[in-house]
Specification:
By secondary structure, the protein is an alpha/beta fold. The protein has a single domain, classed as FMN-linked oxidoreductases (TIM Barrel), CATH 3.20.20.390. The chain is about 45% helix and about 15% strand. It contains 10 helices and 8 strands. The protein has an 8-stranded parallel beta barrel with strand order 1-2-3-4-5-6-7-8, surrounded by 7 helices. Strand 6, helix 7 and strand 7 form a beta-alpha-beta unit. The site of SN-glycerol-1-phosphate has 14 residues, from strand 8.
Length: about 260
């Protein structure tokens, strides 16, 4: 089964899945391996690997080859640049920063990456992703020259998300930016979810189980956490459980109505 089909199946099973973002630039290869195995044990559904600033292909290969074969959950690249591809991953989020003001981040990097995928990385499964930056925006908002959607402007997020669906992206990601002071608001998630049928991923600034559950309940199909594993690893297990519980509770509510 491909990675996209696996994610869709898990979403169908548990209502909302959890994905862990690991940034190779912030941990050693050994810590990377330990954290990946730990979150797998805790029930995280996939590992995303990426960072907005400087990861070389050599570093990615080193980190990922060390976990290849030990993980049952997929490793999905979440590239900050065309240099962030590795044959040791299972899939790549082929992402377009839809609200960048610079066409390079919407389609320029993607045409460079597509050549690499065709010629050097044929084993990587591309999953196309509409990447929409909200609020704080974090480093990715700055680096990709995005015009982040204000937290309260659901109407603009709806317009981007529906455009993304019409354009045929596999999935839609509402991103507040890694380490954001505030995550995407549940009301925005809920309204986008009601409009689009594509899987909706939400991440950036989620630091506790309550917020994670709130976003799953609001309609996030996938909740991503990254920074918290560096700051308070003891919370990660509860966050993963909160996402799954939130997804199941939402599903039961929908079935009743
Ligand atoms: C960033 O949404 C992810 O791309 C994760 O954000 O590091 O704030 O959890 P955090």
């Amino acid at each position: 089964m491909g990675v996209k089909d696996y994610l869709l199946r898990r979403i169908a099973e548990v209502g909302a899945i959890h994905m862990t973002l690991l940034d190779p630039d912030k941990v050693t290869a050994r810590e990377f391996r330990e954290l990946a195995l730990m979150v797998q044990d805790y029930g995280s559904d996939a590992i995303m690997v990426g960072g907005s600033l400087g990861i070389s292909e050599g570093q990615l290969d080193e980190y990922l080859s060390a976990v290849k074969g030990s993980l049952k959950i997929p490793v999905i690249l979440f590239p900050g640049s065309v240099a962030n591809l590795s044959r040791y991953a299972d899939a790549v989020f082929f992402l377009s920063v839809l609200n960048s003001a610079d066409p390079y981040f919407i389609v320029g990097a993607q045409i460079q990456a597509s050549v690499l995928l065709l010629k050097r990385f044929r084993n990587l499964e591309p999953i196309s992703l509409a990447y929409i930056i909200v609020g704080d925006g974090g480093a990715v908002g700055y680096v990709s020259n995005a015009r982040p959607i204000p937290y309260e402007r659901d109407d603009i997020a709806l317009a981007y998300a529906y455009a993304a669906q019409l354009m045929g992206f596999d999935m839609i990601y509402l991103e507040a930016g890694s380490g954001a002071h505030e995550p995407v608001r549940p009301r925005m998630v809920s309204r986008v979810k009601q409009l689009v049928s594509k899987p909706l991923i939400v991440g950036g600034g989620i630091r506790d189980p309550e917020k994670a559950a709130e976003l799953a309940l609001a309609g996030a199909d996938a909740v991503v956490t990254g920074t918290i594993i560096e700051e308070r690893p003891e919370l990660v297990k509860d966050i993963i459980r909160a996402v799954h519980d939130g997804g199941i509770t939402r599903r039961r509510g929908l079935e009743r109505n």
